[in-house]
Design goal:
Length: 133
């Protein structure tokens, strides 16, 4: 009976050390995501590979730290940090999506230019105004 009670209590209570480790992991993840978002906003030659590695490491740290704190034992401070991280990730995703769309658009233009330069026009579509004559 005592084992069962201990197990039930452990599902709703976490240790201060485990909470501190989880908070630190959340802060590290938040710092990485916000740094990448700032770099994307500032433009220039941002090395996204570095951020990719750092975000992967932060996710690993978060996953490990999260396993030590039951969801029923998450305090308000941790919930607030997680919400802040969620919003930062949402903003980061939006910026990354815009950058990817811009890269795709440029790649499409370059590809079309290469096709146009390589073609002698033999198989080119006629102009639309000639289709209806």
């Amino acid at each position: 009976m005592s084992e069962e009670l201990d197990r039930d209590v452990s599902l709703t209570v976490s240790s201060p050390v485990a909470e501190a480790i989880l908070k630190a992991a959340i802060h590290r993840a938040l710092n990485v995501v916000e740094a990448e978002t700032r770099a994307l906003r500032e433009g220039g030659g941002t090395d996204l590979k570095t951020f990719e590695y750092r975000k992967s490491q932060a996710l690993l740290d978060l996953s490990r730290a999260r396993q030590t704190v039951p969801s029923t034992a998450l305090g308000q401070e941790i919930r607030d940090l997680l919400e802040h991280l969620r919003l930062a990730l949402k903003d980061n995703l939006l910026l990354l999506s815009r950058h990817l769309a811009a890269v795709k658009e440029i790649a499409d233009l370059v590809a079309q230019s290469m096709l146009d330069a390589d073609s002698d026009g033999t198989y080119a579509r006629p102009f639309p105004e000639y289709l209806h004559d």
